[in-house]
Each structure stands twice: as C-alpha cells, then as structure tokens.
Specification:
heterodimer; A: 111 residues; 6-stranded mixed beta sheet; B: 115 residues; 4-stranded antiparallel beta sheet; 11 strands; globular
C-alpha cells in the first residue's frame, strides 16, 4: 500500500515563530488532507489539497503531486497551535476511499 | 452547521457488554466510514459505506458490525467488546462515493475503554 512519511516527528517552537511541516507519499494520490489533532483528541480539518496551494489565515499548504510531497506552513505560531499534525492521503488504487495517515508531527508551542 | 456527530464521546464498559456508537451527518453525504486510532498504529479504517444498504470491510473489521439503513446514520456495533478494542474511534463522511475523490469530514471522536 501507499506509504506516508511526515517530518519532523517532533517540533518545539517559541510563540511567534514560523514552521514548515513536510509530508512525502510513495504513490499517486487522489486525495490529500492535513489535520490538526488537538489535546482533546479531535481531528480538525485544515486543508483538502490534492494539488496546488491554499491559505487559511496563518496556515497555508502546498502539494506538488508530481513530486509526491506536501508542505504545511504555520506562521506566527500560537500556543493553541500545539498538538499533532497529520497528513492523510487517498490512493488512486482503492475504491474504498480509505485515507492512509502519516505518523504525524507533534508540535509544541511555548509561550 | 454542517457536521459529523458521534455519541457517546466517552465510554467505559466491561468485556462482553454489547454497545453501539452512533454516527450522524447532516451534509447528505453518500460515503461514510469508521476509523480507530491506536498509539503506534495510527488511524486504520474499520468499515465503510458507499451508500444506504452498501457496506464493506476496511483494514480491521474483526469484532465490529455496521449498518446503513438511512443515509445520515452509520452506527458502529461492538457485539462483545474486548479490551483490545479500547481505542479512539472516528466516524467520517464524504460527498458522493463514485467519481473523483472528495474531502472527508471527521467527527469529534469517541474514546472507548473496555475493562
């Protein structure tokens, strides 16, 4: 099956700093989503971005499908950004639409 | 507000006592799915449904049942829960099962503990 690798696994930032999270995937995809899992366990949809670039406030994402990677940018980080960020992809080979999740980047923003 | 809801959000139960976790979406989505999240194993698909009365197994279906009698609801049934089903469960939905892929929307999660 498709492999999804996220880096870095852990990241500690001071409030106000910027960061870039990376997601590499091993095959063509028809879906790519970024999620933030907050300390209460909820998965928050950040972006649906199988290709191209999107921005939402301090967050933006870029997916280069031909090179099989996606980047999530967080600018001017806040303590509420803490949590785990997941990249999830949907393979073109399966009709069951299962998302394959990466192992996540655990972000801690310190005041 | 467009959303996926799950109930209960937290549940502690004992081995063998049947339980149902409900999932409902108000977006008229055809596709619905259940995942479980475990430390070190990530999120894995349990069952999915392409439409009413159409369900199929995901990666880890053993010990679970589902039904899809109505478009909006997709309950997850544990007939005889065991401690290895202790996990964080997520329901997800997506518009239209066929054609190109669409964004999936996740519920808030149900934290289940089986003692």
């Amino acid at each position: 099956g498709i492999q999804v690798e996220q880096s870095p696994p852990d990241l500690i930032l001071q409030e106000g700093a910027n960061s870039t999270l990376r997601c590499n995937f091993s095959d063509s995809v028809n879906n790519l989503q970024w999620f933030h899992q907050n300390p209460w366990g909820q998965l928050i949809n950040l972006f649906y971005i199988p290709s191209g670039t999107k921005q939402n406030g301090r967050l933006s994402a870029t997916t280069v499908a031909t090179e099989r990677y996606s980047l999530l940018y967080i600018s001017s980080s806040q303590t509420t950004d803490s949590g785990v960020y997941f990249c999830a992809v949907g393979s073109m080979d399966t009709g069951r639409r299962a998302l394959t999740f990466g192992s996540g980047t655990r972000l801690q923003v310190q005041p | 507000e467009a959303q996926v809801t799950q109930n209960p959000r937290y549940l502690i139960t004992v081995t063998g006592k049947k339980l149902t976790v409900t999932c409902s979406q108000n977006m008229n989505h055809e596709y619905m799915s259940w995942y479980r999240q475990d430390p070190g194993l990530g999120l894995r698909q349990i069952y999915y449904s392409m439409n009413v009365e159409v369900t199929d197994k995901g990666d880890v279906p053993e010990g679970y049942k589902v039904s899809r009698k109505e478009k909006r609801n997709f309950p997850l049934i544990l007939e005889s829960p065991s401690p290895n089903q202790t996990s964080l469960y997520f329901c997800a939905s997506s518009p239209r099962a066929g054609g190109p892929s669409y964004e999936q929307y996740f519920g808030p999660g149900t934290r289940l503990t089986v003692t």
